[in-house]
Amino acid sequence: MATPRPRVAARATTRPRAADPAAGAAGRSVATVTAGGTEPRAAVPAVVAPIADAAGPHVAGLVAAVESRLREIAGPGGEALDLAGTAAVAAGGKRLRPLLAIVVAGAAAGDGERALAAVRAGVALELIHTATLAHDDVLDAAPLRRGRPTAFAEHGRAAATCLGDVLFAAAFAELATGGSTPAVQALAGACRELAQGELLQRADAWRTDVAEARYLERCRLKTGALFAAAATLGAQVGGVAPEPYARFATAIGVAFQLFDDVLDVVGPPEVTGKPRGTDLLDGTVTLPLLLARAQDDGLRALDLRSLDAASAAAACDRIAATGATAATEHRARQLVDEALAALPPDADAGRDRALRLIGRGVVDRRL
Questions:
Q1: pTM of the predicted structure, to 2 decimals
Q2: Residues 13, 19: Cα–Cα separation, whole Å
Q3: Three-class DSSP category at 197
Q4: Residues of the chain with pLDDT > 90: what percent?
Q5: What is the model's pLDDT at position 27?
């Protein structure tokens, strides 16, 4: 797993603009967009392509630059950690957090230094997200992620833990090249909250009497915080006040987690890439179970430690039968509706359109 190389900084003494490792990727991709090339558009995951299109013609180039830089950082090395890092990045995903930062940055990020800052932010956010997944897989002893073997399964606990650590370090190394203290502070604050959310989840493991407010706070810390950081970093790049966009992103992040918890109960394994009831087997209590316990005496008496794969799937059926998954989805939709209603009037029409598509995409389960 290769981190940003010292020779990049050394080169900066004679060629200052080369000191920013994002510059090459961003410059190539933005130039291709301007020339009408197809490379940047192809780098945008299909599920978020309408959002990128709505945000403006510069967005595809920035997303492509983020993708290119992520693969550079993952490195061409042949050691186990390099290969694991390359696989983690190549596993892809929707790149929703980088896209959110780029969208909030708005048209101001279409060129020059602000474009480079948007790319740095997107890269750092995705590296942090990937690092948290690697660490989650270690904590959960997860064999699969997105239907593929995890670094934990292929390389063991120690290597997977180191992979997450290296990705965290690479994220801050990337962001620090821009010299923005507020940007580093925003990402560091989000990482602190991510860790606090994980500690809260571990403290609540196997407990079925968790208060709903405590569960929602856990969702805010574990998922909403990084979405909020994406919006904050984007706002810093775009020169707009971050607070309203961070509030919007937090609500979207919590709703995203609520829908994810529903999928753990009702989602087909061939779609989710994991068996139903994985959260139950891990001792992670989510809102569908909390709501269902109020309707089903058998679930109220359920001992999560006694479950195996078959009984966890049966428990999922009982949870869904109470209407708890539908109620959880309803709450998620309420969060998104409130977040959309609270968006400020925006002179940047592309930003406004794209943020509303993100909100609707979460509700419609496209994201």
A1: 0.87
A2: 8
A3: helix
A4: 68
A5: 47
Domain annotation for the chain: domains and CATH numbers: 6-363 (1.10.600.10)
| Each residue's pLDDT tens digit, 180-191 | 999 999 999 999
**pLDDT band for position 10 (cuts 50, 70, 90):** very low
Q: Give Cα 149 to chain centroid, integer Å.
A: 19
Residues 6+ apart with CB under 8 A from 255: 332, 333, 335, 336, 339, 362, 363
Provide φ and ψ at 148, rounded to 5°. -120, 155
pLDDT of residue 77: 57
Amino acid identity of 67? E
- Rounded distance, CA 51 to CA 48, Å? 5
13 φ, ψ to 5°? -65, -25
Listed in sequence order, the residues at least 6 apart from 46 whose beta carbon sits closer than 8 Å to its beta carbon are none
Residues written for the chain: 367
E strands within 226-365? none
- Phi/psi of residue 106, nearest 5 degrees: 75, -165
- C-alpha distances (whole Å) from 345 to each of 192, 234, 249, 353 are 31, 17, 16, 11
pLDDT tens-digit profile of 193-235? Answer: 999 999 999 999 999 999 999 999 999 999 999 999 999 999 9
Q: Supply 51's token pair.
A: 């959002």
- Enter the tokens of residue 321: 């039968």
